[in-house]
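Notebook, bench 3.
Goal today: get a predicted structure for Signal peptide peptidase SppA from Vreelandella lionensis so we can plan the truncation constructs. The sequence was checked against the plasmid map this morning, with no discrepancies at the termini. Length recorded as 371 residues. Pasting the sequence as submitted so the record is complete.
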Amino acid sequence: MSDEQQRGGDSEEASQGEDQRGVHDRWTQGPDVSTKAQESPLPGGQDDDAEILRERQRLAQLEMMDRWIGGVLTEQRRTRRWKLFFRLMLLALVLVSLTVTLYRVFLAEPSAAVPAQQHLALVEVHGVIASDSPANAERIIQGLNQAWESQSASAVVLHIDSPGGSPVQSQRIYSEVMRLREQGDKPIIAVIEDVGASGAYYIAAAADEIVASPASLVGSIGVIYAGFGFQEAIDELGVERRVMTAGENKAFLDPFQPLDEEVARFWQSVLTQTHEQFINDVQAGRGDRLSDSPEIFSGLIWSGEQALGLGLVDELASLEQVARAQVGEASWENYTPRLDPFERLTRRFTQAAAEVLGLHSGHAPIKFQAQ
């Protein structure tokens, strides 16, 4: 046997041996492996044409796009959850604050009952005196009666810081103070802070004693009506004013009509009579303490130091000094009724709506108010 024949026989035997071993190799042979190998050729193989390659690239791009969109949506959902969380926290804080406020205003009782020791009973008259303001007659009179009925109150103090306002509201408070003063159970003291003028001084005049600071503004005993005349302006604009009345003088204060002499005389008589009521009540309250100066009732306003010389006030002192003189210490109890916040909001809304619609407001045209 030649060498070439021998090598060929050896190769054939090796090949037969490998075939026999392969039949029994379960990792490289078997129906699953052979079938998958035949059905799934390697990517980019020779059997893949250009169209298949483009389709695979497109699918890969779509898969990448899906993953990116999924990440964006996940991040957006996470952001919305945090926003919702913070909004709910803010809403909870607002609700808690509102609940606490409403409880303190409507349900919470005063910190303590009226103290048993002697004290000053304070009633505040702050701001413009009007039926729709905090300084209205009903509220102040209610506080006065509560302070007067307190057994441990050694004195009632009208704490005044007001430029005045409605004549009717001022007269109501004045009459109630005079009624209590005539009973004589305890003194009523008016303490003027920055301003106690016009209608506010009207109220103070009913007190047993008026105290002011040297720089307080006191007086302005007068009556005022202020308006405008637009008759020429409306002619220039070419606007026709249409007013229908039952009664020839019903619209005598219409700002778009001229004010003739007869109407002016009539309206001046109304102001003069109201002024006389003011003067008479101040004289009844102050008595002989007023000086004979004719300027007292001219509408002028003075400092507290000047008012002392005119007899408009009795003493120059502060609220703390009055408290120490009456009860021995600078302390007092406030008897002014609490304000209803919803009622105030409703009143302000009604006033604003009336002004926008051009409706007549509830304020009186005549005022006891410093200008």
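Strands lie at 119-126, 153-162, 164-165, 188-197, 209-212, 217-219, 301-303, 315-316, 332-334, 368-369. Residues 307 and 313 are 6 Å apart (CA to CA).
Flagging this for group meeting.
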